């Protein structure tokens, strides 16, 4: 009889624990659903207030095609290059692609997935706006400056160009035109402007060069430079590929060169250099050793 009483007590405790878990799970589910409902109401109010025409995807996000583009339709297997702006519905900016830089990936790899869905059928040169409820964005945890349960509005502007090489070349040409700079395009795709012609030893592939230099982004931000009488000495072969445009130039030459991102640091962002950045260098060939 004692054993029966003990068994009944255990069964009662297990039942209470199980009911407690069910209540807790139901409570969590209701809280999650209420967040979805609250987010959706906020988004709909925002759309109405700003007189927007947006489509609601079955998964819960909203999107609007601002420009369908004029190029070819981008498929999941295609590389896509774009600028991205992310902000809150109140206008707080969380992320903007750096000036003279861009994002890039395959359309099929776009994250979060709503971006990929919103871009379905878009042509190169197109533009879309996407509003993500918090559960499809960064949820309760947030991310970086994005707080918990934040609705985010993103604008993706797709480049007409289908390759990073074409984008970089256009950026350089547009920059040169805007600044009134006359430069020559080398076979390696680096643009160069000879400011002073050298008269000494010519640079070859095995040369060690001594230079004074300043490296900038196209927005004018200096990311590296020699200071005062300081110089950099290095084998040409150890420098980024774009510097090979110095081949054939002579000691004493002063040049300005514009390097496409793939001949600089490519997708490998540096401390002061965003990924896919065109580089702008002033270089003085102080010495050449062969």
Write the layout of secondary structure elements.
Layout: H1 2-49, E1 55-56, E2 62-67, E3 79-88, E4 93-96, E5 103-106, H2 113-118, E6 127-132, E7 152-158, H3 164-179, E8 184-185, E9 191-196, E10 208-217, E11 222-225, E12 232-235, E13 254-259, E14 279-289
Antiparallel strand pairs: 1-2, 2-6, 3-4, 3-5, 3-7, 6-7, 8-9, 9-13, 10-11, 10-12, 10-14, 13-14
Would you kindly provide a written description of the structure presented here, covering whatever features stand out?
Helices cover 24% and strands 28% of the residues. Strand 1 (55-56) and strand 2 (62-67) form a beta hairpin. It folds into 2 domains: 52-158, Roll (Chitinase A, domain 3), CATH 3.10.50.40; 164-289, Chitinase A, domain 3. It has 3 helices and 14 strands. Strands 1, 2, 3, 4, 5, 6 and 7 form a 7-stranded antiparallel sheet that branches. By secondary structure, the protein is of the alpha+beta class.
Spell out the key features of this protein.
single chain; 290 residues; alpha+beta; Chitinase A, domain 3; 2 domains; seven-stranded antiparallel beta sheet; 3 helices; 14 strands; elongated; isomerase; EC 5.2.1.8; PPIase_dom_sf; Peptidyl-prolyl cis-trans isomerase
């Amino acid at each position: 009889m004692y054993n029966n009483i003990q068994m009944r007590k255990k069964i009662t405790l297990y039942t209470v624990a199980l009911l407690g878990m069910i209540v807790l799970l139901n409570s969590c589910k209701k809280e999650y659903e209420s967040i979805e409902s609250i987010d959706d109401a906020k988004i709909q109010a925002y759309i109405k207030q700003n007189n927007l025409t947006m489509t609601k995807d079955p998964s819960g996000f909203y999107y609007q095609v601002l420009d369908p583009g004029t190029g070819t339709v981008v498929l999941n297997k295609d590389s896509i290059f774009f600028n991205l702006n992310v902000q809150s519905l109140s206008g707080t900016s969380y992320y903007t692609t750096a000036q003279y830089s861009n994002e890039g990936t395959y359309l099929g790899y776009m994250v979060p997935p709503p971006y990929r869905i919103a871009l379905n059928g878009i042509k190169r040169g197109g533009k879309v706006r996407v509003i993500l409820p918090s559960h499809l964005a960064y949820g309760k945890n947030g991310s970086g400056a994005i707080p918990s349960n934040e609705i985010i509005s993103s604008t993706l502007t797709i480049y007409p160009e289908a390759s990073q090489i074409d984008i970089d070349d256009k950026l350089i040409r547009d920059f040169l035109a805007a600044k009134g700079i006359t430069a020559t395009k080398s076979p390696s795709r680096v643009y160069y402007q000879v400011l002073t012609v050298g008269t000494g030893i010519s640079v070859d592939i095995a040369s060690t060069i001594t230079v004074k230099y300043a490296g900038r982004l196209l927005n004018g931000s200096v990311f590296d430079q020699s200071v005062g009488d300081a110089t950099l000495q290095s084998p040409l072969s150890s420098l980024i590929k774009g510097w090979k445009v110095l081949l054939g130039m002579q000691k004493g030459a002063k040049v300005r060169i514009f390097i496409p991102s793939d001949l600089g640091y490519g997708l490998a962002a540096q401390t002061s250099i965003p990924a896919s950045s065109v580089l702008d260098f002033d270089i003085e060939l102080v010495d050449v050793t062969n």
